[in-house]
Design brief:
The protein has 495 residues and is mainly α. It folds into five domains: 118 residues, 3-Layer(aba) Sandwich (Rossmann fold), CATH 3.40.50.620; 97 residues, Glutamyl-tRNA Synthetase, Domain 3 (Glutamyl-tRNA Synthetase, domain 3); 82 residues, Glutamyl-tRNA Synthetase, domain 2 (Orthogonal Bundle), CATH 1.10.1160; 46 residues, Helicase, Ruva Protein, domain 3 (Orthogonal Bundle), CATH 1.10.8; 103 residues, Orthogonal Bundle (Arc Repressor Mutant, subunit A), CATH 1.10.10. It is 46% helix and 10% strand. It contains 21 helices and twelve strands. It has a three-stranded parallel β-sheet with strand order 1-2-3. The protein is elongated and about 105 Å long. The chain starts with 9 loop residues before the first strand and ends with a helix.
């Protein structure tokens, strides 16, 4: 029987610490979290660390690091390795009911994790051992795998309704006698997962589509223990542009959550992005806050088709992810954006004053797609000395070096006497361009390059006001020297 609809669901995210936090695993966590928060339920984090040969402390640390970066909480936390006795007791209870048997096939051949010939379902010699013979061999210390005895005398259909993929069924004739305990006494994934789901009263299991076929085995375990069957919702897989499954081994950092963090994605923008991989709200919105996602989430919005993450060899980030991040950056309050930019600028070696950064934020927020972009876009605000630049950059279009030099010299004179406010600076420089008889662009470009070290930069007058008189005049003076030296060198080269 299935759980009836309850007011307080219990869901779980159960990562195995065998690698970094995969973007697909992060999406599974988020969908579980959204369902729990939408229904007022409980979000459980369970570290499935029973695979001792593959588990690593580094992987576990990476998982926690990635989850904490998402800024989504959980209500309960467990570790499977601390629950091994429960797993064994549950397996033994199934054995005592006559629903499992000992398989004494020599080591390696009885390991359900290793490939078998096509069509293998069970070993009749082991399945049909008498209880006395089985007990005798076990008492003698002969190693064995404990296998679930899938019903074969009377075949039946295992059925369940998946919240995403609809009605599912499979005959017991097509299910092998899967292992519950390995020969070393440790539980298999099936045993540990089901025992914990039962004990933790998990009501809804939301996981990847690659676990869909496992569900039939898990239902058999639930039935054997006499536990209620949870509701199941399997999520479409994430695939690469070439149609291959998105994997850690093949695609590396592209699928790691920390890659997005280190590139300067906002946590809630990343959450927004991964939610749209295989799910969409009824109103087809794209830019959504955390509360928007909670309010809109439903299983009905999850697609059955696998979701493509569009990246290239030279660019690991889906354009939709970049666009969403930019949208969230633009919507972020200035103070919060400054706080999130601060560590990136400090990491780059800049001396950053928070008050100054707060003033810079409005000038750059529409020019950055990631937080790390600010390092390149806003560096000149925090550098004592600009990075070297080509003096020809000072020369405006449809102008020459002499025009640029004159513009800089006039600007230095005017700015030494002008109040450093946006309005006063704009009025003074526009007026000076008129007196010189040049277009404003021919006046402004040399100034922009002089103070920023590049042609493309935030609005000029706000930038000058932000930099202040002393820094502005110093950089214009350096630009005059640089351009004069260039002109002299160029003149000397002429015959």
């Amino acid at each position: 029987m299935a759980y009836t609809e309850i007011s307080m669901p219990r869901v779980r995210f159960a990562p195995s610490p065998t690698g970094f936090l995969h973007i697909g695993s992060a999406r599974t966590f988020v969908f579980n979290w959204l369902y729990a928060r939408r229904t007022g339920g409980t979000m459980i984090l369970r570290i499935d660390d029973t695979d001792v040969d593959r588990n690593t402390a580094e992987s576990e640390a990476s998982i926690f690091e990635g989850l904490r970066w998402l800024e989504l909480d959980w209500d309960e936390e467990y570790r499977q390795s601390e629950r091994l006795e429960l797993h064994r007791q549950t397996a033994e209870a199934i054995f005592r009911k006559g629903l499992a048997y000992r398989d004494f096939t020599p080591a390696g051949a009885a390991d359900d994790e290793k490939p078998r010939g096509e069509g293998w379902l069970f070993n009749p010699g082991m399945r049909e051992l008498t209880a006395e013979e089985s007990d005798r061999r076990a008492a003698a210390g002969e190693p064995f795998v404990l296998r679930f005895k899938v019903p074969r005398e009377t075949l039946r259909e295992i059925r369940f309704r998946d919240a995403v993929y609809g009605e599912q069924s499979k005959s017991t004739a097509d299910i092998e006698d899967f292992a519950l305990l390995r020969s070393n006494g440790l539980p298999t994934y099936h045993m540990a997962s089901c025992a914990d789901d039962i004990d933790l009263r998990v009501s809804h299991i939301i996981r990847g589509q690659d676990h869909l076929t496992n569900t039939f085995k898990h239902i058999l375990i639930f039935e054997a223990v006499g536990a209620a069957q949870p509701e199941f919702a399997h999520l479409p897989l994430l695939i690469a542009p070439d149609g291959s499954k998105l994997s850690k081994r093949r695609h590396g950092p592209v699928v790691s959550v920390t890659t997005y963090r280190d590139a300067g994605f906002l946590p809630h923008a990343f959450v927004n992005f991964i939610c749209l991989l295989g799910w969409s709200p009824k109103d087809n919105r794209e830019v959504m806050s955390r509360q928007d996602l909670i309010d809109a989430f439903s299983f009905e919005g999850i697609n059955r088709a696998n979701a493509v993450v569009n990246f290239r060899e030279d660019d690991p980030f889906d354009p939709k992810a970049m666009w969403l991040n930019a949208q969230h950056i633009m919507a972020l309050p200035a103070g919060e954006l400054a706080d999130r930019l601060f560590p990136f600028l400090c990491e780059a070696g800049y001396k950053v004053d928070r008050e100054k950064l707060l003033a810079v934020v409005p000038l750059i927020r529409e020019r950055i797609k990631t937080l790390r972009d600010a390092v390149a876009v806003a560096d000149f605000f925090f550098l004592e000395q600009l990075a070297p630049y080509d003096p020809t950059e000072l020369i405006p279009q449809k102008g020459d070096a002499a025009m640029a030099l004159a513009a800089l010299e006039h600007a230095r004179e005017v700015l030494s006497q002008t109040a450093f406010t946006h309005e006063e600076l704009e009025a003074a420089l526009r007026a000076e361009a008129g007196r010189m008889g040049v277009k404003t662009g021919q006046m402004f470009q040399p100034i922009r390059v002089a103070v920023c070290g590049r042609k493309t930069a935030p609005p000029l007058f706000e930038t000058l006001a932000m930099l202040g008189r002393e820094t502005t005049l110093e950089r214009i003076g350096q630009a005059i020297q640089k351009l004069s030296a260039h002109m002299s060198a160029h003149s000397a080269q002429k015959p």
